[in-house]
Amino acid sequence: MADQKLPAISLGGLGGSSPGVDAGSSHDPLLHPELYEGVALRRVFAHFLDMLIIGAILFVPWLIATFVLVVSIGLIALPMAFGSFIFIVLYDVLTIGGPASATPGMRALGLKVISWNGAKPDNLQALLMSALFWTISSWSVLPLIVALFNPRWRCAHDFLSGTVVVRRNPA
Fold this sequence. Notes:
Layout lengths: L38 H33 L5 H20 L7 H5 L2 E5 L7 H15 L4 H4 L10 H6 L1 E5 L4
Helix pairs in contact: 1-2, 2-4
């Protein structure tokens, strides 16, 4: 059996004319390992920073909702939790699907999200990424551990949504 040479995966358009793809970039970790250096730890800190921002935004509504929760004898608990989930997912969708392709925490730590083909993710892809992250991570950390076993530090929700997190301006 003849040896087959596997092609390198090029995630950016290298002169191609795909719409929305940065024609001068390639996101292959074998060709550009600097895009993935420190991404895992930066993602963790970016997540904590985003949680602080979300917590600050939701503090007053949660305070009011807690008072209403007591008055309603707990009947508002489910809508309160659902509303918080919707807000957090919208935060992710509007920031990851927006012009910067990153949440404020990701931007602060020099990260951005790209589609598997190197383009900016659209809102639907950002919605899928966020909803999968929050749904999966609410019941298990195993899908997050997937990041430890691949060269792009992609978690299960990244694989399922077709996204990759890279450094914005690698050194």
